[in-house]
Amino acid sequence: MANKKLKRLDLVFKDEKDTESVLKKTFSRSNADVINDLISSGLKGRGGAGFPTGLKWKLTADAKGDEKYVICNADEGEPGTFKDREILSKVPHKVLAGMAICGRVTGAKKGFIYLRGEYRFLLPGLNEEIEKFHKLLEKLDCRFRVEVFTGSGAYICGEESALFESMEGKRGEPRNKPPFPTTSGYRGKPTVINNVETLAHTYSIFKYGPEKFQDLGVQDSRGSKVFSVSGDTPNPGIYELEFGMTLQKFVDDFGDGDTKAVQVGGASGFCVPRKKFGKTIIGYQGRLQGESLPTGGSMMIFNSSRSMYNVLHNYLDFFVEESCGQCTPCRVGTQQLLLGIEAVKKGERSSSYLDKLLELAETMRVTAKCGLGQSVANSFASIVENFKEEMIY
Amino acid sequence: MEDVKLMVKELADNYGRSEENLLPILQGIVEREKYISEEAMVEVARELDISAAQVYGTATFYSFLETKPTGKYVIRVCKTISCMIKGKNDIIRELENVLRIKMGETTHDNLFSLRETNCLGQCHKGPAMLINDTPYTELTPEKVRKILCDIRNIEFPAN
Amino acid sequence: MSEIINLTIDNVPVSVKEGTTILEAAKKINVRIPTLCYHQDLCVAGNCRVCVVEQKGADRLLPSCAMPVSEGMEILTNSLKARNARKHMIELLVSEHRADCTRCYKNGNCELQELSSEYIIGEDGFIDLIPYKEYTIDHYSPSIIKDDSKCIRCQRCVRTCNELQKIGALAVAYKGKDMKISTFFEKPMFEVVCTNCGQCINRCPTGALTEKTYIDRVWAEINHEDKHVVVQTAPAVRVALGEALGMEPGEIVTGKLVAALRRLGFDSVLDTDFTADLTIIEEGNELLQRLKKALVDKDPDVRLPLTTSCSPGWVKFIEHAFPEYLDNVSTAKSPQQMFGALAKTFYAKKIKVAPENIVSISIMPCTAKKYEADRPEMRSSGYKDVDYVLTTRELALMIRQAGIDFASLPDDDYDSIMGESSGAGVIFGATGGVMEAALRTAYEIVTGREVPFKNLNITPVRGMEGVREATIKIEDPLPEWKFLDGVELKCCVAHGLANAKKVMDAVKAGTVGYHFIEIMACPGGCLGGGGQPIPTNEEIREKRTAAIYREDENKPIRKSHENPEVIRLYKEFLKEPLGEISHKLLHTHYRARNRY
Description:
heterotrimer, A: alpha/beta, Ubiquitin-like (UB roll), four-stranded parallel β-sheet, 13 strands
């Protein structure tokens, strides 16, 4: 069995107590050098969308603005994802250091952690950690400060522009883009918004240099990734693994021997059936062989006892409730998909209605205002196409 | 009524009186009162100089900002996929039986309210629930009974 | 920043300024992209996604209303991909809309219906969501019906209520499938801060927001043998009614309007413009009286600035939002209500009909007028002073129902008495009109001379600027008004309640020293009222405005105090402005209202 195991990494969770020296070292370098390191490391956003982090910092640094902000997106709401919670409870200082460095190179004086309401129990520990961190910053003569803003139960606030709206006291409704956060984010000011894990990785990059990070992973997908593993597995939990593995290798390691499908990337991700495990590679879209799947790190394993209809139904139920409701394709489309598969299942509509629903899902993908509505098609199409018979009978 | 006024004023003094302080203020009200009443919303609207309808619209967007009277302990059972396949329905059944209420209701003594919620981020330890801010994971019906029992013992120490 | 961007739309090259949206660029080359949530008067929402277009080489479609152009873009508005997506959007909206078209008040005037017919939404569409939803139909308001089952969540109404009008009666509530347009705690519209201005109705693309119609009751009254039905027509109706009957915006149809009303069977066809002139006499004197009390008597209780009171939306707005300023509002009733009070007293006597047999109808550009007529204060004749209020739109519908070919009607004249008006009465329909009319009269009362403006046109108070200020210096007044010598009368005009709020905030902050403020609840004044023909936009409102001022110029009498019928009314009935009868019939009081 041992040879079946994927290599466990320990970059993110290693309990390193050298924040001060990492900050000192980084603060002493030029902003351009720091950004260049980040760019050459190849780090991409770990929330799932995969935007190059260094470029994001550079765009914000270059943007004109009297005030700028750094926001750590800890509104981790994607079903099957819980890594950010673990990072914030185990190594919050790495995240804070990443934010302070980001503040330094972009010119932002203020940082916020948008903590989802479901993680409010982390607040006391986090505030304590921030207080300690502020003392350290004082010592280093850095005026950057961090504050926690708590959410109140709305998945969509993980979408960056919805998150800004929420922080501004409004309904968490995504904005039209452009403009993008790097020029017009929180309060309409240039803003870097990074996922918790992304910021934790920057710590390692600044500590060890970009090469070490670059050495991990493959091609367009560099570094390690923290995976949240759940479902039908004997070993649910958090694992830091290298990018570029095939899903087959992952299943060999984590499956229960009867794995029928893996949902990669949560409800807004893709469902991969057993027959495609071998040619599916976990990483960002790139020049990889076979199909590659980006992921915020949610790996949900289903064994053959599970009804994929029930799985899809659960996802759609989730979207129907968590859509912000402002744009037509998402608000109405999600309801139609849910009622649609119910109708087919009950025999009220013929199985060909699934084709109409697939077309609708594709329309949602190309017309919805934000990532939520756009990505409903991912799970919908991948489940319906791969498990059509389960949808009908 | 006066109490509500005072409470909202205090929160506004604390968090500020611009629109962007709305969420912390509403969260503060929920922390104290468990829900945001009509009177409280009107006061918030007055303090922040925004429309009451806007306060209502924002409050109803966030599922943790209750706008109807709620028990002292709000139980939110995760209904999302991992918890579903790990048996959240058994947990809900147990809760309903022990509390003698249905999903969405509040016990007569106003102690417990029962809700379903979307992913709590405890997927590796399902089924999971929150009671107010505290997560409880890897639930079994037995565990649920014990948790409720412990809370009752805190609330009614004489028994 | 105003760089020129070159792109092609449907293979036609177009060059526009940086920052232009694809939708605007398309309009420039006469390519119409269908829209639903977009409205020229409102900020861009990008909600409905009906206006999506394809950009060559891009995977996702672009919302043309929200997407700025970029250099070299190749846009296809009718590619198969864009068309299919657009059709999906329409199908989805229809699926959450109670598509009960033949029974709908907006049948034939519904943007969703129009698009559905253009895109041939067949019966094999998506699942009808209406049976799965709980929805409310709120018909408790005397002015507005809000039917959530017809709502497509475009949020035009919310933007209207919050941006254009800053009323804040409507908001978006809940999320996901439960997302809806709601009042505070989903209370009925009549319980909340809604001013009944009806601007939301003007912009609702479907039948979710409509006026409460009283057409059938009016038909019944007309056909009632014992009843004498008196109708009054507001100034702004005559410059807009034509639009609802196939004519171009900006046509003056006063004569045809009178003729049509006669054909419909109204017994006396009279003019609100007459009581507009009367309002000027009462309100003008009230202003002068307040100025005297403030400047000569040094009365600490006198409240200035004085604000106008003819817009019922504005009156309700101040009752909710600035209750501490109610004493600043002129006690003079609106022209509609002055007319109503006189119709069942003075006029009833004149035509020798018992007041209980008089039915008093008004044709208004306004939905708030329905509510105003319902106010308990508005029964000073001993009866309900105005029985039914119809909007311009409802009158157009009656004319169509009666099979009248409006365009070919010969012009006709109002009945007398209470049918004559001055140009000053006519311009009540435009923002700044009341101010101008009041100044024409007040200045002459005080100085004995005409206002020092060419052709009596007080241009500084005209226009579409949201808030306008003007100062008139009083020089060489008549002996009686000596105390006003050298006084600079500071006037302010605001239209649209967002601007009203701005002005009142300034008054509250003490940063402005106005004496007299004219406020109209609706953009453009009454001519942009919530009861006017749909659609509305700046261009249409400007055409109506031009028509109003044309009508003024064509009038032989231009000043309210020279209206011979008004003079007669004082001589025969009222005796003097602000006198005892005026006080009883023509003035009113206000009440503070709730914050939500």
